[in-house]
């Protein structure tokens, strides 16, 4: 089973599940996916996504305590 949540711009026509604003946030920025009880982040296109300070360019497994940064702003999310 797979669940996915779209992260994107507040004013996007795509109506993302998690709506953000700020520099570098794309209309459709990334997906958060749950597969077999594990949580993944998958960037869309060239949307800036960072995990624990490192750029993410493809699907990556998220762990408890990870730090996620979306876009170019200083908004940091902790898992």
Task: Considering the chains and any ligands shown, give keywords for the structure.
mainly beta, about 80 residues
Provide a descriptive summary of the structure in words.
With 79 residues, this protein is mainly beta. The strands form two sheets. The chain has a five-stranded mixed sheet with strand order 2-1-3-4-7, with no helix packed on it. A four-stranded antiparallel sheet has the order 6-5-8-9, with no helix packed on it. It contains no helices and nine strands.
Summarize the structure.
Helices cover 0% and strands 48% of the residues.
Topology, pairings included?
Elements: E1 2-9, E2 18-20, E3 30-35, E4 38-43, E5 49-51, E6 54-55, E7 60-62, E8 67-70, E9 76-78
Parallel strand pairs: 1-2
Antiparallel strand pairs: 1-3, 3-4, 4-7, 5-6, 5-8, 8-9
């Amino acid at each position: 089973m797979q669940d996915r949540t779209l992260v994107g711009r507040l004013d996007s026509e795509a109506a993302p599940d998690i709506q953000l604003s700020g520099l570098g946030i794309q209309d459709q920025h990334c997906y958060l996916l749950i597969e077999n009880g594990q949580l993944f982040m998958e960037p869309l296109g060239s949307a800036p996504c960072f995990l624990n300070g490192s750029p993410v360019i493809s699907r990556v497994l998220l762990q408890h305590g990870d730090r996620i940064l979306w876009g170019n702003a200083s908004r940091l999310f902790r898992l």
